[in-house]
Design a protein that fits this description.
The structure holds two protein chains of two kinds.
Chain A lengths: L4 H65 L5 H13 L3 E8 L15 H10 L5 E5 L6 E8 L7 E8 H4 L11 E5 L5 E5 L12 E6 L8 E6 L3 H4 L2 H84 L4 H30 L5 E5 H19 L2 E5 L6 E5 H20 L7 E9 L2 E8 L6 H4 L17 H11 L3 E6 L5 E8 L3 H7 L1
Chain B lengths: L6 E5 L3 H13 L3 E5 L2 H5 L8 E6 L7 H10 L6 E5 L4 H9 L4 E4 L4 H34 L2 H11 L4 H8 L3 H15 L4 H10 L1
Parallel strand pairs in B: 1-2, 1-3, 3-4, 4-5
The chains are: A alpha+beta, B alpha/beta.
Chain lengths: 515, 201
């Protein structure tokens, strides 16, 4: 899971906004399209309804003409009305009312307020028509047209129209669209499926247009609330996120693969470089080492050869005391052993034998080294001071290689102080337990180490000595690190250099148990 | 009378090598004086230049090569045999340039060492003889007058008596007289000897 998280998180961060944006855009497009459809249907309906209401004006005009040539009771007038109602079912009633007759409103006009009707008729100029909504809320309205008086008082022709049939759609209008037809005063004559006024997350689609008729300035309104599924059809709702997710996944995968392959190429390049470097170094090291081996072995060989030839001369001369020859042979044995030791050390370096890590007392290592270096130090006129902590700190390490390291450090220190005035030819070898680490330090009173050389001191083939190979300290570092420790150098508080070698300290009882 | 000990100053930083060479040189009849480094050699209590040197080239502190080069600059250095653990051609060339008698690589065979040290002593003897000869010559030269030296130089330059007389604007007879005095003072029996004496200066 942990391995997935770093890949999953960027995916989610990209995918969720992308999916939401896509869905939002899709919903907006769908919403606009639904709005356009409603506008289109509304316009069509508006045209149809407008034509229909204009017919009413025409009917009234023709009725008025018939009425002018006959009277209300004439057969022809009745016939016209009958035909009109037969062809146009929306015309619920046709009446001729005379306001003077007072309360003479016919029974089929019961939906309308007689007083209001009378007032309207009275206010009309002859030939003028006006619309009156029903008072009962029924879907009827009256189209009232003043006709010339017959001498009894103001007369008017009234068409009672069923608005439901007027707006009857002839297909096309979405089933869930609400429809409202209201008069100029805003009173709804017909209203059905009107969306509730409450706030909805999706805004309503609306269409509103007044009819072009002067006598019937009705306002046609359409409204519908698009369904969620309409704006986000399942194809979009599920298809888009999946498609976006898949493409995003592919894109990220391709990018990651390219990055990985680039990194792999880089790694290969670096590795090749490393390998070349290591090889060059090995080749160099072999050369340097061969020269080093030759030099090291030369010394005891020279001693053996010269010593033996001197012994031979003594023996041949016949003047030699047996003590002289014994001394020669003993010296030869010592030199041969020394050569053997050198070879052993070199073999240890070359074969990289597995270090024999055992609990060791650092004080013992120090005293072994002191024994080894005693003569060399005396000859150089260098004094060695010991500052050992008791009991000796213990650590798990390979004694031979660490003795080699300390010996090397002591020799370096001796070379550093050799050229100093007598008072400064001192080396301090110390052991101590510090921060849970066992430490051996070699401090000298020499010139110290130049700041510029400090960083390169452990680099192979870096040397400040005229006759150095530059392998001593790198070898020390390797031996110490193989033993699980570390080596460090700093300049002393006043002068000289201090090399410290530290290993994880071994508790006393643990050391005993391991032993 | 026992001959004077032939002193060999041996400088090598390796104690084992030093001990062995000291023994070997002693069995060869030399009187070795070992030193662990150039500095202790220079600081020796009896700084006489009465022997020859066997020095290791590479040593901590001042190297044998540096010692040799320094002695070459100062007058009166001792004949020196260089020894080295490396067959280093560049060091070898430097050593000979600085006047080393021989250049030996370790391990050193006794015969080679013996020959080299003998050669060094031969060089030392030669140098001593040359010094003696020079001292005698200087003494003889000192006996000549200014005019006689002038004439000796002209004789060495290949001029005849007449030519010399013309150059110095004196009579040939006077020149002849001077030449006789010169031959007598420097002990030269012939013109050739006289010329050699003049040129050896």
């Amino acid at each position: 899971m942990e391995s997935l998280t770093p890949r999953l998180l960027p995916f989610l961060l990209l995918w969720i906004p992308l999916a939401l944006a896509g869905l939002g855009l899709g919903a907006f497009v769908e919403f606009t399209r639904a709005g356009d459809a409603l506008q289109r249907e509304g316009t069509t309906l508006h045209r149809i309804v407008s034509q229909r209401v204009e017919q009413h004006d025409a009917h009234l005009t023709s009725l008025a003409a018939v009425l002018a040539s006959s009277n209300a009771e004439s057969a022809s007038f009745r016939a016209v009305i009958e035909a009109m109602q037969r062809f146009y079912p929306r015309i619920a009633a046709v009446e001729l009312i005379e306001t003077v007759s007072g309360g003479g409103v016919p029974s089929n006009m019961a939906d309308f307020d007689p007083a209001a009707l009378s007032a309207r008729v009275g206010a009309l100029a002859p030939g003028q028509a006006v619309t009156l909504a029903s008072r009962s809320g029924s879907p009827l309205y009256a189209l009232v047209k003043r006709v010339p008086d017959s001498g009894h008082g103001p007369r008017a022709l009234v068409l009672v129209i069923d608005a439901r049939l007027l707006t009857e759609p002839e297909g096309g209008l979405p089933g869930d669209a609400g429809l409202k037809l209201s008069d100029a005063a805003g009173t709804a004559i017909v209203q059905h499926d009107w969306p509730p006024a409450q706030r909805a997350p999706i805004p309503d689609l609306t269409f509103a247009k007044a009819l072009g008729s002067r006598s019937q300035p009705l306002l046609l309104e359409l409204a519908r609330r698009p369904a969620f599924a309409e704006l986000l059809p399942p194809g979009l709702l599920f298809g888009w996120p999946v498609a976006a997710g898949l493409s995003l996944f592919l894109l990220l995968t391709v990018l990651r693969e390219r990055r990985a392959s680039r990194r792999a190429r880089e790694a290969v390049r670096l590795h090749e470089h490393d390998a070349r470097l290591a090889h060059a170094m090995r080749v160099n090291t072999v050369g340097e080492m061969a020269s080093g081996i030759a030099h090291e072995i030369t010394q005891p060989l020279t001693a053996i050869l010269s010593q033996s030839q001197a012994g031979l001369r003594l023996a041949k001369s016949g003047t030699a005391a047996s003590g002289d020859l014994i001394g020669v042979l003993e010296a030869n044995v010592r030199h041969a052993r020394r050569a053997g030791e050198i070879l052993e050390r070199l073999r240890a370096y070359v074969t990289r034998r597995e270090p024999q890590r055992q609990p060791q007392d650092l004080n013992r290592i120090v005293s072994n080294v002191v024994e080894l270096s005693q003569r060399d130090l005396q000859e150089r006129g260098v004094a060695l001071r010991l500052d050992l902590s008791e009991p000796g700190p213990r650590a798990l390490l390979d004694r031979v290689s660490i003795e080699q390291v300390v010996h090397n450090l002591v020799r370096n220190a001796a070379e550093a102080v050799e050229a100093m005035p007598a008072g400064r030819r001192e080396i301090v070898l110390a052991t101590r337990l510090v921060d849970g680490e066992a430490e051996i330090s070699v401090a000298d009173d020499g010139p110290g180490i130049a700041e510029a050389d400090m960083a390169r001191l452990f680099e192979p083939f870096f040397t400040t000595k005229s006759s150095g190979m530059g392998l001593g300290l790198p070898l020390c570092e390797r031996l110490v690190e193989t033993a699980g420790g570390r080596i460090a150098v700093r300049n002393g508080p006043e002068r000289g250099a201090v090399f410290t070698v530290r290993f994880p300290a071994l508790a006393v009882e643990l050391g005993m148990a391991a032993e | 009378m026992k001959p004077a000990p032939r002193i060999v100053y041996l400088i090598d930083d390796d104690a084992d090598v030093r001990d062995a060479l000291v023994l070997l040189l002693r069995t060869m009849g030399f009187a070795p004086r070992p030193f662990a480094g150039v500095q202790s050699f220079l600081d020796r209590p009896d700084p006489r230049q009465d022997g020859c040197l066997v020095v290791d080239i590479r040593m901590p502190g001042t190297s044998g090569l540096q010692l040799l080069e320094r002695m070459a600059k100062e007058a009166g250095g001792m004949p020196t045999v260089m020894i080295t653990g490396h067959g280093d051609v560049a060091a070898c060339r430097r050593a000979f340039k600085a006047g080393a008698v021989d250049f030996l690589t370790k391990p050193i065979d006794e015969q080679v060492l013996l020959e080299a040290v003998e050669a060094a002593f031969a060089a030392l003897d030669q140098r001593k003889q040359a010094e003696v000869a020079r001292a005698g010559r200087d003494a003889r030269l000192a006996r000549l007058t200014q005019r006689e030296r002038e004439i000796l130089d002209l004789v060495a330059g290949g001029l005849s008596t007449k030519e010399i007389a013309r150059v110095l604007d004196v009579s040939p007879r006077t020149v002849e007289t001077h030449r006789a005095h010169i031959a007598e003072k420097i002990g030269a029996g012939s013109v050739a000897e006289m010329v050699r004496f003049a040129l050896e200066g």
